[in-house]
Amino acid sequence: MQRIVLFLSVVFLAGCASERIVLLPSADGHASAVVVRNSQGEQRLDQPYAANVRRSAFHRVKLSKPEQIQKQYGATLSAQPARANRYMVFFDEGSDALSEASLREIALAKAEIDQRIAPEIMVIGHTDRAGSEEINEALSQRRVEAVRGWLLAAGIAETDIETASRGEREPLVPTADGIADPKNRRVEISVR
Asked: In terms of Cα–Cα distance, which of 105, 187, 113, 97 is closest to 157?
C-alpha cells in the first residue's frame, strides 16, 4: 500500500529566516516518517505532527498540535487535491475474466472517477507466482486490458487511463516461486 507523507514548509522572512517541516498523519492511519538532512546531520520525524524547526543550522524537534496546524495552514491544506484511492480487483487462477465482485469494485472506482474534476487513473496488473514469468507477464497485461476495456466502455476517457503490467514482480503476499495465492492475482486501480 502506498504511503503518502505530507509536509508543511514555511520560510518566514521577518527577521531571521527559519523553516518548519511538519509530518502530517497518513490518511490510512499507517505509520510514516521523513528524514530531514542538512550539513549538520539529520533528524527523523516519525510521529504525526512532529515538527522540525530550523533557524540557520540549528534544528529542534517538537510536537505540534493538530488544531495549531489547521489554524496556521488550513487554507493550504484544503487546497491540496484529494488523495488517491485504490481499488482492488481479484481474479481466478489463470483467468482474466471479470467476476461480479470485480465489476462491483470497478463500478465503485468509476463512481469516484466521476466525482473528480480532472481524474488520473492508473491500472496495474499483477499475477501470483504459479506460472512462468513470461506467462504471468502476459496474463497481468490481459487483466489490465480487461479492466481498462470496462472503464472505456463505461465512458472514461482513454487519455485519463495509464496502464502497467507487473506480472509476478510485486506480490501483495510474498511467496516462493510456483505458489498460487489469490491475493496476488489482482489489478489495482488508483484514482486521484
From this structure: 113
Quick check: helix, strand or coil at residue 165? strand
How much is the pLDDT for 53? 67
3-state helix, strand, coil in the chain (%, to 5): 30, 30, 45
Collapsing DSSP to helix, strand or coil, 79 comes out as coil
Please tell me the number of Cα atoms within 13 Å of 104 on its side-chain side. Answer: 3
Q: What is the DSSP string of 148-161?
A: HHHHHHTT--GGGE
3-state secondary structure 30-57: CCCCEEEEECCEEEEECCCCEEEEEECC
Spans of the chain below 70 pLDDT: 1-18, 53-60
Residue 41's contacts (CB-CB under 8 Å, 6 or more residues apart) are 59
pTM: 0.66
The pLDDT, as a whole number, for residue 17 is 53
